[in-house]
Amino acid sequence: MQNLKGQNATMSAEPESYAYFTITSSLPLKDIDAHMGTAGDGRCWSNGDHRKQPGGETYSFSRWSLLSGVERGKPINEHLQSLWRRLSPLREKIVQLPAGMEGSVSCVGYFDSHLDPLEIASGHFATAAYYRIGFDCDFYFGDDFGHEEDGKPYWSW
What we know:
This protein is of the alpha+beta class.
């Protein structure tokens, strides 16, 4: 694969990945739905709802979520491109999130090794800045890269 300059481009190697947009708030989920003009399609809950996990705990915040619409396992870039297209009609509502609502894009990737390649185009960060939202990455590695021993990372630079 080549990039726009005709150079060989690095391909992401995450065997499992996905991306989504989320709004969190202490306000009820119905208030987020009302502001956005639609219900989310990902994992959504309202402040005070009971968690599905055993123990009967309740959520201390509301979460509204919109998935990328791309099947899991495709490169993060594909998820982000699709997610921005899905968010485009909601752009003004996102840029004008009221006080008490915070928006963020999250990328999740599972890798066999910390040496596997990952590609996230720089334009995705610029788009998040334009939308005035956070950009979070959660990456997991099969070779336990990043785990700590005695309170310090086990790798040395």
